[in-house]
Amino acid sequence: MHTIRVDVGASKGRIAEAIYGHFAEHLGRGIYEGIWVGPQSSIPHIDGIRTDVVEALKAIKVPVIRWPGGCFADEYHWKDGIGPVEERRAMVNRHWGQVLDDNHFGTHEFFRLCELVGCEAYVAGNVGSGTVQEMTEWVEYMTGPETSPMGALRARNGHPDPWAVKFFGVGNESWGCGGNMRPEYYADVYRRYQTFLPQYRSDHRMQKIASGSHDGDMDWTEVLMREAAAQMDGLSLHYYTIPSTWEHKGSATNFGLEEWFTTLKKALVLEDWIQMHGEVMDRYDPTRTVGLVVDEWGTWYDVEPGTHPGFLYQQNTLRDALVAAVSLNIFNNHCDRVMMANLAQTVNVLQALILTQGAAMITTPTYQVFRLYAVHQGNRQVATKISTRDYSVGGEAIDQLHASASQDAGGVVHLSVVNLHPQKAASIQISMHQGDAPWGIAEASAEVLSAPEITSKNTWDTPNQVRIQPLTGIGVRENWLDVTLPAKSVVELRVVPMAAAPGHDEPSGSRHQVGAGKGGKG
């Protein structure tokens, strides 16, 4: 028997909405065809932005979108993407396929997307091939008053009012595609660039994100925190779950039980990196005023056969859903340090939420996880302690269960549990406590995400093969729940207290815990 002890009296603080963020780069069919079809398209749209994609993102309460990259950000020159579209200067996307980008989706179109979705903007600035002046003028264009030179240019281009930029990234992967810099050099570059990023809006403070490390590179984090922590609000971390090697990552859809296990085992390593980078950050920032920003995460496989190798298009199976679920559990459980996370990527690229084909659109198993987990946004994290069996393959083992929990303003507890085993169900006894006292349960309900096979996926012919369904057979007795999780599943439990519980005040703490609110328009 597996057991989970939930203690609503123990918390690491508030789960920032921005932990459930996303990432839309000019890469493959992510922007063009995925989000942007243009004002002349026969595909239903609002100002050239796909209506079906907007509605799907609104349905899961997307809190923030990162744009325009990624590696693309450090070759993007924002003035090429403003003004009449017929006058915009095209560019070659050197990082992703050497294809022509006509710059029809630029600053105005991105903020229109944010307005339609109702989310915050996370803009990545060009450090690699751009100048301080270019970045400063972009911030003025986006957030400055109409009386400023760039604000006046924005007004002439049809938007007199300034936008709100919640987060601004000073470069991307500056250790690699963003400039191949050494950490000491980038620390000085960051300090210089951020000095000239103005805060035009007292009602919407722009948080500055430094380009951070990847995987287990602790030296980069050490140097950046030592040299520049006082000038930053957040430090990024990138981690991709790759089943095999960088050169041969493995198939997204054609895999067996061994690859299933290896992928989930590697996904769980994300927690080690968060803990290790967090310990380095704590040495220089013990009050945790600098947030960890995992602004690129997700699975990365070989591209689908027959597709452009530079477009990073991959299908999405039940395996990806479980990777997403354990990753979100990790972020929830480390909400005292993680201020934001951005899945790579939103549409048609890597571990996408949405796939499009002409006028057709489907949501992926990963999308369904974000739909289940949306209930955690802004909640108070509560502690979970799991006693579970090993899930072993080839002499290696991981825990069969993985979980996180939160409590909403009405006192209801939301418990997310993943059964990583592809073949064995898990019978669980869940006890609810508040400190040493039992926490009485009035009622409980649950939904489950699973599918017949580990390779099950949503396709144009079978768009609902991996879908959320009610989970029945939950036993309730005093402060105990008895639940059976199907094999290879994600379950979201809603547990209502016996007595009406008052809402919890938002915990005091570091500024990064504020997270992203709603409304892309300032």
Explain how this protein is built.
- The strands form 6 sheets. Strands 1, 2, 17, 20, 21, 22, 23, 24, 25, 26, 27 and 28 form a 12-stranded mixed sheet that branches.
- Residues 501-522 have low confidence and may be disordered.
- The protein is an alpha/beta fold.
- β20 (401-407) and β21 form a beta hairpin.
- The longest helix has 28 residues, at 257-284.
- The chain contains 9 helices and 28 strands.
- It folds into 2 domains: 25-377, Alpha-Beta Barrel (TIM Barrel), CATH 3.20.20; 382-497, Golgi alpha-mannosidase II (Immunoglobulin-like).
- It has helices at 51-59, 107-117, 132-143, 149-156, 183-195, 218-228, 257-284, 318-333, 365-373, and strands spanning 2-7, 13-14, 21-23, 45-46, 49-50, 64-67, 91-93, 99-101, 120-125, 167-170, 207-214, 234-241, 291-299, 338-344, 354-357, 360-363, 380-387, 390-393, 396-399, 401-407, 413-419, 426-434, 437-438, 441-450, 467-470, 475-477, 480-485, 489-497.
Descriptive terms for the model:
single chain, about 525 residues, alpha/beta, TIM Barrel, Immunoglobulin-like, 2 domains, 12-stranded mixed sheet, 8-stranded parallel β-barrel, 9 helices, about 20% helix, about 30% strand, globular, disordered C terminus
